[in-house]
Amino acid sequence: MTLALSVSFATPLALLGLLALPPLAAGYVVVHRRRRRAADAFATPALRPAVAPWDPGWRRHFPIALFGAALAVLVVALARPQRGVAVPVERATVMLVTDESTSMRATDVDPTRLEAARAAASAFLDDVPARLRVGLVTFSTYPQLAAPPSTDHDA
Predict the structure, then answer these.
(1) Cis peptide before 111, with omega less than 30 degrees from 0?
(2) Mean pLDDT of 30-34
(3) pLDDT tens digits along 55-83
(4) What are phi and psi of 96, to 5 degrees?
(5) On the CB side of 54, how many CA atoms lie within 13 Å of its CA?
(6) At what angle do helices 21-42 and 62-78 cross, to 10 degrees?
(7) How far is CA 30 from CA 34, 45, 49, 79, 114, in A?
(8) Is it the case that residue 24 has pLDDT exceeding 90?
């Protein structure tokens, strides 16, 4: 038994929003470099430890990186991903259709054609698996549902 997995998006055009993330990241880098240059212009490298003794390092960028990841997840969520999983279905429905017109009363088959059809249907029901749903439609001038599909084969 193999299961196939497929992923699709309800609104795939929303994924174009992911194209905005690299320019936003580049803009952040540009702004951060300008800020660094402004700080360098404010104090000489020898005085910097006295003016700004603590540099947050990578922790300065963590919130914006987290925000960028959240935006990416939001854009993917807006595209509404959908997953289809194919699973084997062991359920089927068989409809038996029987002609009940006057031609079925002919005696060329012993005892009648209608009785032969009923015997064939009964033999079929004895051989089918219990999980198979079977229904019965009869027709003469117009069709009529005699038994809706059911696993109760005795009905």
Answers:
(1) yes
(2) 90
(3) 778 888 999 999 999 999 999 999 999 98
(4) -90, 130
(5) 3
(6) 160
(7) 6, 21, 24, 30, 88
(8) yes
In the numeric block, the tokens 């429905």 are attached to 93
The first and second tokens of residue 19, run together, are 């194209």
Write down the pLDDT at residue 1.
47
Burial of 72 (0-12, 13-18, 19+ CB in 10 A): middle
Inter-residue contact 9 to 15 (CB < 8 Å): yes
> Among 23, 31, 40, which Cα is nearest to 60's?
31
Return the structure tokens found at 45.
């490298």
pLDDT, one tens digit per residue, over 99-155 is: 888 888 887 877 888 888 889 999 999 888 888 899 999 998 889 998 999 888 887
